[in-house]
Design goal:
399 residues, four-stranded antiparallel sheet, 8 helices, 4 strands, disordered N terminus
Length: 399
């Protein structure tokens, strides 16, 4: 019985990181790769968004007056107006880009983890349905024995039709259960095929380990995403405030022009340039409302972090309760198996002595096998809870 009590040391369940994609289909991997590329491009755009563009301009004009004079005017130029001070706005912009990059990375990890959880839950549910199907087939064998015995007793007048009918109805109900388990197997195969090329019949799994509550709360993906969003909103609040404070910009332009109607004698070659500094003090009617809106968004996100931490604690506690319940059921069933062993030994002795039938012995053996499958099903139930905890966490290599 020890092997059932210590089942969690011997189950073959794979250990993988929430951010891994190796078990996913090539199509899923490609989609996630493109999503990562989009995030990285967004980061580059946000980080350097404060740098002003250089404006290039080229023009050509032809003038003709009423007295017959005419001239060609050709001009090419480049200009820029670059903010060099925004009352901290530039620093906030760069910091926000970094925070947004962190949020996007966590969001991608959450997406990968969610897909992996669906995949491994489907595999585990597939294996669970296999065990339930085995149980159903064993139950049907016992039903067949029961029907045979009831039929014999009815034929000799030692049982009424109600007993035989109940046995037949029990068999019918179990046949429906068997059909349901076959459908569940097909459904889980379908769910797996949508995500991966894994064959659930041959894929070997290793154990998912239980994570401590402190590590769960520290490395929870959803919590960390909310925290990163809170940091990003804090910088957005800073950007909103700074956009209504004084800013300083450096202005510059350079170019060349050719105006052939006026030939200058002082050696001017047509080039020109200019530089200057401008100070901007925005006075906007809705500045206060805009700043307050950004502040409220930041405070709401802080509240969301606290709320999600509470939910994470509750979810973890619920999983622990379920795991403990499944372990208790395993312990109880393991004790029942010891009783079955004693009964089987007693019945076998009776069969050998000719005072018991082989049907009794086979029924007990089937019942014991059903209980053994119950242990395996509860082991899988525990793994489903551990998988839920595991895939809620970020890649342990990043911890």
């Amino acid at each position: 019985m020890k092997r059932y009590v210590l089942f969690y040391l011997n189950i073959f369940l794979i250990t993988l990181y929430a951010g891994e994609t190796e078990f996913l289909s090539p199509q899923k991997q490609n989609l996630l790769r493109e999503e990562q590329n989009r995030y990285e491009s967004e980061y580059e755009k946000l980080k350097y968004n404060w740098i002003a563009p250089i404006n290039l301009n080229a023009s050509y004009g032809y003038d003709k007056s009423a007295i017959g004079e005419h001239a060609n005017n050709k001009k090419i130029s480049a200009s820029v107006s670059q903010d060099v001070f925004r009352s901290g706005g530039i620093t906030y912009q760069i910091a926000y880009a970094d925070a947004k990059k962190t949020s996007n990375k966590i969001a991608l990890d959450m997406e990968i983890a969610s897909i992996n959880e669906k995949l491994f839950s489907a595999i585990l549910n597939y294996k669970k349905a296999l065990r339930q199907k085995d149980q159903s087939e064993l139950n049907l064998k016992n039903r067949e024995i029961e029907i045979f015995i009831k039929q014999q007793l009815y034929d000799v007048g030692k049982a009424d039709i109600t007993e035989l009918n109940n046995a037949l109805m029990g068999q019918s109900s179990e046949l429906k259960n068997l059909a349901a388990y076959n459908y569940a197997l097909a459904q889980q195969r379908y769910e797996i095929s949508k995500i991966s090329d894994i064959n659930p019949d041959t894929f070997l799994l290793r154990e998912f380990a239980l994570t401590k509550e402190s590590d769960y709360l520290q490395n929870n993906l959803e919590l960390n995403y909310a925290r990163s969003q809170s940091v990003g909103n804090e910088y957005l609040y800073g950007i909103a405030k700074s956009s209504y404070l004084p800013s300083v910009a450096l202005n510059a332009n350079i170019g060349y022009q050719d105006y052939d109607a006026k030939k200058l004698s002082n050696g001017y070659d047509g080039g020109f340039y200019g530089a200057g500094i401008s100070v901007n003090v925005p006075l906007a009617y809705n500045s206060s409302a805009t700043i307050e809106e950004a502040k409220s968004a930041h405070l709401k996100q802080l509240a969301d972090v606290v709320d999600k931490e509470r939910s994470a604690k509750a979810s973890y506690a619920q999983s622990l309760e379920l795991i403990q319940n499944y372990r208790s059921q395993i312990e109880i069933t393991s004790k029942n198996l010891a009783l079955y062993d004693e009964l089987i030994a007693t019945i076998k002795a009776g069969v050998d002595a000719g005072v018991k039938t082989g049907y009794d012995l086979q029924t007990l053996k089937n019942s014991k096998a059903i209980e053994e499958q119950t242990i395996k099903i509860n082991e899988i139930n525990i793994q489903l809870e551990l998988a839920k905890i595991h895939f809620a966490l970020k890649n342990s290599k990043d911890i």
